[in-house]
Amino acid sequence: MTLDLPSHLPHWLSQTAASRHKLVLLTGSRDARVAAEKVQQAIPGCVVLNLGLALSRRLLDVSSHQRPAQAPILLADLLADQEPAMLYDIELLFDPTLQLEPLRALKAASRSRILLVLWPGAYEDHKLTYAEPGHPEYKRYGPADLAEILVVPMAELTTEA
Question: Which domains does the chain have, with CATH numbers?
Fold first, then answer.
């Protein structure tokens, strides 16, 4: 079984280009590196960004008390002039100390650019989750939260090799 990501990308990009939120969430990916390579091959010029690493580097110079106010600004700065962009390792967005609402932050960032995001959680029964209930980083989003964005379970993109 191989991941047939490239053949689907043009359809997703055209589907999201006219949307308010130009956001595609790819769920269930076990190997971000492989997915990122396939996106780069399929979309020349697509920026692939390890969001956790890039954002944490920028947050190092910000006091812990200023991080909640600065995190959304730094996220916007990281993505400025980056279209389309693929984000992976986004777990830092869920850190409670940053006081971010991860899906809202991604939606805001996708208003002016196409974003493909490897979502590190699950998508089942039209619900998107991250972490387990009771965990401090747990998030659950229902159909109303997911309106106007495209959620793609990566398991649906595998083909026989």
Answer: 2-159 (3.40.50)
Q: Is 95 a residue whose pLDDT tops 70?
A: yes
Q: Round to whole Å and give the CA distance between 72 and 99.
A: 10
User: Shortest CA distance to 58 belongs to which of 44, 75, 34?
Assistant: 75
Beta strands 122-124 and 127-130 are antiparallel
Mean pLDDT of 70-81: 92
Q: What is the pTM of this model?
A: 0.86
Confidence of residue 52 (pLDDT cuts 50, 70, 90): very high
| DSSP structure string for the chain | -EE--TTTHHHHHHHHHTSSS-EEEEES-S-HHHHHHHHHHHSTT-EEEEHHHHHHHHHTTS-TTTHHHHHHHHHHHHHTT--SEEEE--GGGG-GGGT--HHHHHHHHTTSS-EEEEESSEEETTEEEES-TTSTT-EEE-HHHHTTSEEEEGGGGEE--
Q: Which residue has the higher pLDDT, 52 or 152?
A: 52
Q: Above 70 in pLDDT, residue 83?
A: yes
